[in-house]
Amino acid sequence: MSKKTLNAANLKNLGADRLADLLMEVSTGSAEIKRRLRLELSHNLGPQELAHDVRKRLAAIRKSKSFVGWRKRKSLIRDLGTQADMITQKIAPDAPAEAFDLLWSFIELAPSVYERVDDSRGEVGDVFREAKMAFEQIGPRAEQEPKQLAARIWEAVQDNGYGQFDGIVPLLAPTLGDSGLDTLKTLIEADQSAPEQDAPDHAALRFLRELRGTGGPQREGSKARLRRLVLQDIAEAQGDSKGYIAQYTRSELKRPIIAAEVARLLMAEGNTDEALSMLEDANPDDPASGQIEWDQAYIDCLSALDQIDAAQEHRWAVFAATLHTGMLRDHLKRLPDFEDIEIEDRAKALAQTYDNAIAALMFFLDWSDLIGAAELIEARASEMDGDLYQVLAPAAERLRERHPLAAVLLWRSMIEHALWDGKSTRYGHTADHVMDCTAADMEITDYGRFQDHDAFMEGLRQRHKHKASFWARLP
């Protein structure tokens, strides 16, 4: 390796004095680098000194009110990441109690940051979520008084509008211990007698939480739901499955996804018959998600009860209704040799006539059956929805080498859709698809019942001759 390569080993050869001079030089005019260097100097003096500087920086970030635009967002993310690393990696090993309090302050900082930065990419949220996970390691060494910690957690989860404290109970359950968990349960039960006073859920807060996929239990605006979820966290931490299940209402237990969850808890305790009854009592027409989870739990129950044939029948029924590849794979691997080949062929034939052509295409792609995918496309080309470019574009790329006609038919669907609907923002991609069709034409010897490339292009020019901004993109 060259001695000029920029790496730690070569830089060490410069010597401490030269490196110090270089660091002073590169830090000139960079507040970010200066802050990092000061933190390293503080760490060299001990964890308490570093904690003092981190606390000052967190206070400064909290007081800031200015909106962080896209130009400064990465700098903010790096700053937050640096503070989190100082707490979790440099203070925590020698001063876990100090690190615990600092980490709590860091997580409390999240709302004030979210309110002044566009985090549509979730990068800011990732920093806070990753830092929060350190509670699991730091907590048991931080010598927290369980009852005081329980009160602190209950206060935090009640003011959790941005989901910053989501999952805090499972993370700190070992730190709380049974006494802390019991105290937390007592606080919640005492709160149950208080009148409901849910604050109105502002539309802007709902949007931000949905954007991040967070928002915690108060997303539904229900204090009762908050209490229920925390009590379930406590029950799970204490291995109290009955207490966990008891938090669900009768109507909730009829939802497939909840019935599946509860059934698995019952099966884990050996109550398989009760689990099967729970699943059979669920409402299959519930609009909420979770049907495939219900199906898998149902199959596992049947298998545990040695109802092997019934489990196989259900796997096939689910596949026939949904083309779920996982169900088909599980079904096939339990069949005798050679019989699996016959059933696989039957499954592919079913997929060719499945009522949703796009779902069928996704099945063949997931099954890595490009021949089946090409046959489907050529047989049902008119059903390929050109608006679904997120499916069709990668499918065409996979097919272009060995099945160029099928690939062309997908590109044509996307071309026609974009032009008929006047989606000018997609004209660049659409022009690329036209060029893809031109390139593939050299590999196609027979277009069968479809127009050849020249005829397609002539028709395209006639149908969309007024789309000047599109045609200008073609050579």
TrEMBL record:
Pfam families according to UniProt: DUF6880
**What InterPro entries does the record point to?**
DUF6880, TPR-like_helical_dom_sf
Q: What is this protein called?
A: Tetratricopeptide (TPR) repeat protein
- Provide the species name: Sulfitobacter noctilucicola
